[in-house]
Amino acid sequence: MIAISKHVATPAANGLKSDVFIREGGLYVTNIVAKEDIFKAHSLRYRVFCDELGWAPQNFCKLDIDNYDDGAVFFGVFDVNNDLKAFLRIVTSDHPFMIENEFPFLVKAGSTISKRDDVVEVSRLCVDADARSETFSGNFGVHTASLLLYKGVYHWCLKNRINYLYLVVDYKVFRLLNVKGFPCRLIGDPKVMPDGVVAVAAMLNWREFEELNLVGTKNLKSWFSQYQLPPPTVQLPQREFCSQH
Length: 245
Known about the structure:
The protein has six helices and 13 strands. By secondary structure, it is α+β, with helices and mostly antiparallel strands. The chain has a single domain (18-226), classed as Gcn5-related N-acetyltransferase (GNAT) (Aminopeptidase).
């Protein structure tokens, strides 16, 4: 059921640190906590997953909200105007994973999804249509909004001793991640979804990522290692929006 709410919140899981802020090339990546920015996240998700891809049902609020948002950690890349350009959601192991409930058929028969404390699931990864071809220059080359998003998640995982990420993605995205230096491993066979997309379930090991990218000086690991402390907190106005029950 969709209802109007003034106080929809997505708190981080108990005991987890969530103070990540990195600014580069006119963009910044941070965990999303302000209600105004949470609204932007649900709106971007709606444009991508409901309007563009048709993977989620449309609704009059034009916001994509599901049960996996409860207790999740939101991450976003914003521009200088505070417009949201890229987003993903982290679900911690003390909450249900989508890979368990929605995509068990993508996991190899007989395999068990780990729910250890150092394991999380990444879902709802999306990039605004206008930002998909945009790049920015950093100290270690030219990067995209999505790559900056992964960098923010990497630092959050370091703070919280997270070693492994589960994800369900298009097979093309899986291959691209590996090409970019993110060693994702399949945990099941690719499957053709009803809409024709070839989906895969995979796991990323951050320690393997570090080992893979240690060669040379101007490399992905060196860029990922750069970190900036968060700015002072600014209280933003709250907005009425929809929640799902």
